UniProtKB/TrEMBL annotation:
Source organism: Operophtera brumata
A biological-process GO annotation: cysteinyl-tRNA aminoacylation
Protein name: cysteine--tRNA ligase
Cofactor(s) it depends on: Zn(2+)
Matches recorded under PANTHER family: CYSTEINE--TRNA LIGASE, MITOCHONDRIAL-RELATED (PTHR10890:SF27), CYSTEINYL-TRNA SYNTHETASE (PTHR10890)
Entry-linked SUPFAM superfamilies: Anticodon-binding domain of a subclass of class I aminoacyl-tRNA synthetases, Nucleotidylyl transferase
Amino acid sequence: MSKILPTCVRRLSHVCTLKPYKETRWLMPNGNPIGAYIYNCVANQKVPVILSDPHVATWYACGPTVYDSAHIGHASCYVKLDIIQRILKTFFNIKLVTAMGITDIDDKIIKKGIDTKTNFTAVAKQYEHEFWLDMSSLNIEKPLIITRVSEHINSIESFVQGLLDSGMAYVAGDGSVYFDTSKFPAYGKLQKMQDSGEPSDEVKKNKMDFAVWKGHKPDEPFWGALWGNGRPGWHIECSAMVSKVFGSQLDFHAGGIDLQFPHHENEEAQSCAFHKTRQWANYWIHVGHLHVKGEAKMSKSLKNTISIPDLLSSYSADTFRMACLMSRYRYTMVYNEDLMKNAEVVLNKFKYFLQQAVVYVNNNDNKASGDYKDKMLENLQNVEEFNFDALKSDFDTASCINSLLNLVNDTNKVIKGDSKDYYPVPVMLIAEYITSVLSRFGLKLQESQDSNVMNSLIDTVVEFRHTVRSSALSSKDKELLSACDIVRDKMKSIKVQINDSNKTASWVFNK
């Protein structure tokens, strides 16, 4: 078993109660539990996260097939995976070595090249470049290692040769090489199925067999191999590239739920066969689909996609990330205006609170600082413990966001109350904790593209309006109040939302 650091072996069969191996086919790793539990499709239940090294983990995510632009279905998957990675790194102190595979040799890429009279390699480079720009615009951290199929042909050929040498694969009449599923009894363990497969082909021995090498066809690019010219099959690419980088075993393997079968199923089968092991990836992480208005998943084939630039022309990256945080990563997320507006409201509520906390602490009222308010500190501690427990349980960010909102509501009662007591310490500790959690989830909580000059001008307008409005409220001047409402509405039309209160006013960009 290959690992990047020496293993510290400690069998922890008492950590959780699992069904017998014959039923689940999931093997509990030897090593050190980090305290988190994650859903595993092989075990069909939450299982403890156990690493051979308590502070280091390997992570591989299936990247895009770069033949077209990414859409927000891809965005929701990669944002949610980015959130999980950040949680592992910042809440559980794991040194996560991340890798992503880019499929830059594929039928669709070749077809796009033919249709546009462009070399397929140029097509792949164009859309990969666009993909990384989209990921950056969503504040998704770039993997430490990027593997491209075109750069790992030799590793893929060696992998295929290994399967042929062991008798786990065979060369078909058309020059393709197929994995022989009849020789791998555990095939189907991710999907819990044994009776379906890729389309039947007269050159295949079994219905379930899949191509690890595609025989050469006229007018298509090919590479030479001992068994004949051709190019890699889709599934073999990830197995070979992961094995080259991480060896014979992987901690986390991630991707969309649509990849569970056949892609991940085939990866697991051929990798176990190649490395002669019963379990290749210890933890499979599958993200649920993004649906459009609950009707169908978003996909290019259904022509119901929304591009990432189009999304960001209407909503901020923070708003979209908040929508992802408010849903469970394994389940379907329905994209519609209600979802995004709700996420926007929640995001702005946190921004308003953080602004009001600063105003409260720095107010000019003639109040003396009271003792630390035990109830507020106790509430903060309870929320901290609740949130950590939620993250331990399959990265439940939705429960964390709800608990943070409750904490905001409770603290606002102190900030906006008429009490003569003044509690700057607990208020700032709460504000700091909320900022820390949201930042660790990948929210920026700021509009970096807005200039200081613009912010200063908006500050001046909002402060002036607040002064006028306060005077109008005191004198019950309806005409002035109406004028203040017009200013508020005008500001809202340029995406500046003003939040009025008796003591002060604040604002945020409502992109």
